[in-house]
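Notes from the 1:1 (GR / supervisor)

We went over the backlog. Supervisor wanted to see one worked example end to end before approving the batch request, so GR pasted a single chain during the call. The sequence is below; no edits were made to it. Supervisor asked that the structure be written out right there so they could see what the output format looks like.
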Amino acid sequence: MSKLPGWLGTLGAELTRLGERLDERRAESEAEDDPLPADPPATEDTAPGKPAAKDDPAVDQVPAPPTYAPSVAARPDPVAAIPWGMRVAAEAGWRLLVLAGTLWVLMRVISAVQLVVLAFVAALLVTALLQPTVARLRSYGLPRGLATAVTAVSGFIIMGLVGWFVVWQVMDNIDTLSDKVTKGIDDLKNWLLDSPFHVTDKQINDVAKNLSDTVGTNTEAITSAGLQGVTVMVEFMTGALLAMFSTLFLLYDGKRIWQWVLKLVPAQARPGVAGAGPRAWRTLTAYVRGTVIVALIDAIFIGLGIYFLDVPMAVPLAVFIFLFAFIPLVGAVVSGALAVVVALVTEGVFTALMVLIVVLAVQQIEGHILQPFILGRAVRVHPLAVVLSVAAGGMIAGIGGAVVAVPLVAVTNTVVGYLRTYGQEESRRHSPPPHGATALDAAPTPAPGSPPEDSDDEAAPRTS
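Structure output shown during the call:
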């Protein structure tokens, strides 16, 4: 028991020293973590130019500052890291995707209501053809309703009479045509047997048998095609009625319809669209009237040539040539080929060659003289644009699409050209007036030989 107080005293002393060591280490760690202390006030020992005392604790605790600060490069903005060309391509790319999506949706909507769209476009074409007649009748003093009724009824009666005359000619000459076709096939067979192509009778009979077998095996397909033809005729009659009613309303109330369409356009773009509309209508009118005149000339001269060559059904073939003339490029080839084939089957090779010469001559005159003279510069479209537009229209909407493709391209060309010029004039009108050296550069240069200005006031450029 006598040793217990000494042992306790030793333990207390050791704990005291351990606590002092912990306090010293805590103070050292806090001194390392704390920022550099402010400079102490200058004293005699720490005055400028006098070295610090060796026993000063601040010398041991505060390290000397580094001679340079390390520079850390900041990360660039991701937008700035992308090259300029890639950014431009991306901006143009997503805008093109939006336009492509819009066009795709628009084409889907048009294909869903294709009959209505084609009927309305046909009404626009007929209205462009008949509207000058309505304007002329109104200039003679007729009311708008009476002028519209007279023009529309007269136009529909003329088209109906032409259609009835064509059907009558076909039905009247169908027997003669059948006999001539049979005789022409026999003549063609004899010509092939005597020709230098060394065609034998067995080969001709094999071809005829293959044709007969093909017709026999595809009887169901031919029947379904006939039923589909009935459906097409019903759709055609429906579209014709829609086009007739649309034509009547466009002739009678076209101005109000155009004003209503302008209200759907945003206010900022309304002046430009209002100026482009009449120019587009003049282009469409010039195209339709010029195409009708050219088609009529083609039908008359080719029809006369076919008639004088004693080819049967000259009048129906002439009407067919007139209708197919509304399809640029393709229509002339198809109608001319049909006339040549009919002449070959009914009258022989020599008559077919003469018909081919007549068709080619008339088409050359049309392409180099009639179209540039009648259509003029108002609807001039590049031949490549004509080919591509006809092909695209035919793929999208068949014959109707091929008919409306070229006038649509012509109208679009007129509208885009006017809007571009209108935009340039608007930007020039709202731009600030030139001044200083710019005003001197913008001042009009006098023409050579013009008399000099007399006074300085007259020579000063006008900036207003």
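Supervisor's comment: The radius of gyration is 46 Å.
Batch request approved.
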